[in-house]
């Protein structure tokens, strides 16, 4: 029998979360239309599935996000896998392309690319292709990661429009990315830069990640018939982009459940220590469960004593230091649990991935993406 650890992906939860986001944007459009006296439409959704769909698997994501208008990612191989899985809709490459030969792949698989520095436009201007490419021109509105500087953007955009007029490009759009949509700083200063720099330039707009989509849905609405796109990622997997609001408060469901079993039980006495470094010491007699899950499975080593974990449906706590292949739990609240008892590390029926991440001083994103290749991933429809 293989080790009892598995990650189960609910395709239904992915689809449900997409619907939650769609409804949220729809409500925002209705409210804004009433308040502003002009019709505003909900944006289209690029479901972000980079990093193997945040650890959930590309094929699962294609099924779960079948109703999205587009998929966004950054690995060309993952884009090809989407096409092979039957996805015929738009695909946006968030980091653009990396070398001239990649443009052949964009062409062959009909991929939309972001363009974030001038050489990429020069590369697009060269070479023969079977069709006109769709692009989004990326503005660096303050994050200083990818994108044209504000004072270079309009000239680059005009150049892209000329390539469109010359029959090289098809749609040309405007995009930027927020550094603080999840934080008190918010998006105002970057939106000011974006609005000022892109004013009057034609084309669809794409600005919002999960945090901006959930917290500032109005900025994402389509204001003209060029349309608008949002780019939510984490919330579609049932994770929260916020430190101060959990995913359940938005009606989101965890799509990944990491589960295992108790493989040994130890009865310890007062003063006995548990695990490497003897970081946990028992105050009195207690039962300890040993779970087949460790940092080599992607469970964070920095999660310490007290991290929530569920055994046989009962919430209890992790004890001591996480080892490579195992971790220890307190069985005091589950006296009937023995070897074979089911354990949920995170997901449905267990703590949220964000709770575990918080205990390890990281974010749910990192834990989902870092699920180790040795953990078997099973998709299920419900
Ligand atoms: C990852 C990413 C997103 C999605 O971010 P979330 O916080 O997961 O919603 C959106 N846009 C870009 C450019 C990204 O790199």
What this model shows, in words?
The protein has 382 residues and is an alpha/beta fold. It has two domains: 11-250, Alpha-Beta Barrel (TIM Barrel), CATH 3.20.20; 256-380, Beta Barrel (Lyase, Ornithine Decarboxylase, Chain A, domain 1). The protein contains eleven helices and 18 strands. It has helices at residues 11-36, 50-54, 58-64, 76-84, 102-108, 118-125, 150-165, 188-198, 210-215, 353-359, 364-369, and strands at residues 6-10, 44-48, 70-73, 91-93, 112-115, 133-138, 169-175, 205-208, 228-230, 256-268, 273-274, 280-281, 286-291, 308-311, 314-319, 327-330, 342-346, 377-380. The strands form three sheets. It has an eight-stranded parallel beta barrel. The chain has a six-stranded antiparallel β-barrel with strand order 10-13-16-15-14-17. A two-stranded antiparallel ribbon has the order 11-12. Helix 7 crosses helix 8. The mean pLDDT is 96. Residues 48, 50, 94, 177, 209-211, 231-234, 241 line the site of pyridoxal-5'-phosphate. It is an enzyme of class 5 (isomerase). The active site is at residues 50, 276. Keywords: Isomerase, Pyridoxal phosphate.
């Amino acid at each position: 029998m293989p080790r009892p650890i598995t990650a189960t992906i609910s395709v239904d939860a992915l689809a449900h979360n997409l619907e939650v986001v769609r409804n949220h944007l729809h409500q925002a459009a209705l409210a804004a239309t009433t308040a502003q006296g002009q019709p505003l439409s909900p944006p289209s959704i690029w479901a972000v599935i980079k990093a193997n769909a945040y650890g959930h698997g590309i094929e699962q994501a294609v099924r779960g996000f079948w109703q999205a208008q587009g998929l966004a990612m950054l690995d060309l191989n993952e884009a090809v896998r989407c096409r092979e899985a039957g996805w015929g809709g738009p695909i946006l490459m968030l980091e653009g392309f990396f070398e001239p030969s990649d443009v052949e792949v964009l062409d062959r698989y009909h991929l939309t690319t972001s363009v974030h520095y001038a050489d990429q436009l020069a590369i697009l201007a060269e070479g023969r292709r079977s069709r006109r490419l769709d692009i989004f021109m990326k503005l660096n509105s303050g994050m200083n990661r990818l994108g044209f500087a504000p004072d270079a953007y309009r000239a680059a955009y005009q150049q892209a429009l000329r390539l469109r007029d010359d029959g090289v490009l098809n749609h040309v759009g405007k995009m930027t990315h927020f550094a603080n949509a999840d934080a008190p700083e918010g998006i105002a200063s970057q939106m000011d830069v974006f609005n000022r720099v892109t004013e009057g330039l034609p084309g669809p707009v794409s600005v919002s990640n999960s945090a901006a989509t959930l917290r500032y849905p109005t900025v994402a609405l389509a204001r003209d018939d060029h349309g608008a796109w949002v780019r939510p990622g984490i919330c579609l997997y049932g994770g929260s982009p916020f430190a101060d609001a959990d995913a359940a408060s938005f009606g989101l469901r965890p799509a990944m459940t990491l589960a295992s079993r108790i493989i040994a039980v130890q009865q310890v006495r007062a003063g006995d220590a548990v695990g490497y470094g003897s970081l946990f010491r028992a105050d009195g007699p207690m039962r300890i469960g040993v779970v087949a899950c460790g940092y080599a499975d992607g469970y964070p080593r920095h999660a310490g004593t007290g991290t929530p974990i569920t055994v046989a449906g009962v919430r209890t706590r992790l004890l001591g230091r996480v080892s490579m292949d195992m971790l220890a739990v307190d069985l005091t609240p589950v006296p009937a649990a023995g070897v074979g008892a089911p354990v949920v590390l995170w997901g449905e029926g267990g703590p949220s991935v964000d709770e575990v991440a918080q205990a390890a001083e990281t974010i749910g994103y990192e834990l989902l993406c870092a699920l180790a290749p040795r953990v078997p991933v099973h998709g299920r429809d419900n």
